[in-house]
Design a protein that fits this description.
single chain; 13 strands; four-stranded antiparallel beta sheet; 39% strand; three-stranded antiparallel beta sheet; mainly beta
Length: 147
């Protein structure tokens, strides 16, 4: 018989080897690290492990999601049930992109054959944006469907 976290070695039936729990259990939210007889959970850079739940939570700014909804781009803060319109367009917004370092949101406006951008406050509760600007699109691109 082996201690918890170990199993009998098939080749000689007398030795115990460590079980890699990370291969069998999905107990960790981000990274599982096998240890002798057990395992431990770790979080990616920018996140901290919550001892009570084992979940990884941001240790910096509150994360948020940007999503397009018809002619709007909305900023959604998970776990807070907070969202707001950050910009609107006079036509359907098909795709959005976000440049994290410069805090600029980009979107396509295929009805007007445009790619637009606006500066976005990096604060999760500040919904202000700069004035939207149109980007010059090369003449060989007929329709900007994606970013």
């Amino acid at each position: 018989s082996c201690d918890p976290g170990y199993e009998i070695l098939d080749s000689n039936k007398r030795s115990c080897i460590d079980v890699n729990e990370c291969d069998y259990f999905q107990s960790c939210y981000q990274t599982c690290v096998n240890t002798k007889g057990s395992y431990k959970c770790q979080c990616s850079h920018g996140y901290m492990l919550q001892s009570s739940s084992g979940q990884c939570k941001s240790d910096g700014n509150t994360p948020y999601l940007l999503l397009s909804f018809a002619n709007e781009i909305r900023k959604l803060v998970p776990d807070v049930a907070y969202d707001d319109v950050i910009t609107t367009s006079n036509s359907f917004i098909q795709r959005i992109g976000y440049h994290y370092e410069s805090a600029i949101v980009y979107w396509t406006d295929p009805a007007n054959k445009l790619i637009r951008r606006a500066a976005l406050s990096p604060s999760p509760t500040d919904m202000t944006t700069g004035q939207p600007q149109d980007l010059d699109i090369p003449k060989n691109i007929e329709q900007p469907y994606g970013i």
